[in-house]
Design brief:
The chain is 29% helix and 20% strand. It is α/β, with parallel strands linked by helices. 51% of the residues are buried.
């Protein structure tokens, strides 16, 4: 049987398939549909230092080939997460990747400090959050800010740190290079694209927030292109995501340069999709006599 395990930031993943933050809770909701032991990792919903109520409703709308959400990173806060969600995930043979969000540099640093002595294996830092001290600009849209917050987090983190990049920038390689310069152990991309939907019958915005994050198959070609650009711009490893619904999609990201992949929106219409993708990749390797998945990482760039 072909080798499916990969190394990422010094950690071994039994296979490259993970969940995407915000689409899988902390695994509890999906555990009756998915054998978490079969996945390379589970990426949790974003957690902040204090509970966040999220945005007003309606905050989800379907669109062609995907969905738009403006959940607003609703989460119960680090105290509940550490006492309820982490112990649940620790029962499984899978890597635990904790997604961290904040509204200031201090928020991120404090949350990362609180996770230092937990069983979290890897931290994914969501820098698409609005920086309240800088007038609401997302941390991830300014390369200098990316480097600064990455360096601040790395000073206090005990686990490897992955910076989750926003695609809502002119050149994603600039923010990727900034994360690398700040000491990041890896980057994950892409987060959602900013989108909007109008309800023509109500003659108003479909989402109370007016705009939201577009995800799903419609963004995949953009995501694959950005992963490929970043793979050619930095030396740190990449978690690729954005519209993956089957093993073919996952392999596109891997061949573009991603070591790991995260599956998000697809979980909503097929809760078992992650397991199917693991099996599909294994079948592909055997069909084409590829002995090791690592042979395919960034293959188009060689």
């Amino acid at each position: 049987m072909s080798n499916m395990s990969v190394k990422f930031a010094g950690l071994t993943f039994k296979n490259p398939v993970m969940t995407a933050s915000g689409t899988f809770g902390s695994g509890i909701e999906y555990s009756e549909f998915v054998d978490l032991n079969k996945l390379g990792g589970v990426v949790t919903k974003g957690v902040a230092i204090v509970p966040w109520p999220g945005n007003p409703t309606p905050r989800i709308a379907e669109t062609y080939g995907g969905m738009i959400n403006a959940i607003g990173l609703q989460n119960p806060g680090i105290d509940v997460f550490a006492s309820r969600d982490l112990p649940y995930l620790e029962k499984y043979d899978t890597n635990i990747v904790v997604n961290v969000c904040g509204k200031s540099k201090e928020d991120y640093v404090e949350c990362v400090k609180r996770l230092a002595d937990t069983k979290a294996d890897l931290l994914e830092i969501n820098i698409s959050c609005p920086n309240v001290k800088e007038g609401g600009i997302a941390f991830g849209q300014n390369p200098a800010m990316v480097e600064d917050i990455t360096a601040a987090i790395k000073k206090v983190a005990r686990q490897p740190v992955v910076m989750k990049l926003s695609p809502n920038v002119t050149d994603i390689t600039e923010t990727a290079k900034a994360a690398e310069a700040g000491g990041a152990d890896g980057v994950s991309l892409i987060n959602t694209l900013t989108g909007m939907k109008i309800d023509i019958h109500r003659r108003t915005y479909a989402l109370a927030n007016k705009t939201g994050g577009l995800s799903g198959p419609c963004i995949k070609p953009v995501a694959v292109r950005m992963v490929n650009q970043v793979a050619n711009a930095v030396k740190i490893p990449i978690i690729g995501m954005g519209g993956i619904v089957n093993y073919e999609d996952a392999l596109e990201f891997i061949m573009a340069g991603a070591t790991l992949v995260s599956v998000g929106t697809a979980n909503f219409h097929n809760p078992q999709v992650t397991m199917e993708i693991v099996d599909g990749i294994q079948g592909y390797l055997e069909k084409y006599n590829v002995a090791d998945i690592n042979e395919l990482i960034g293959v188009v760039n060689r």
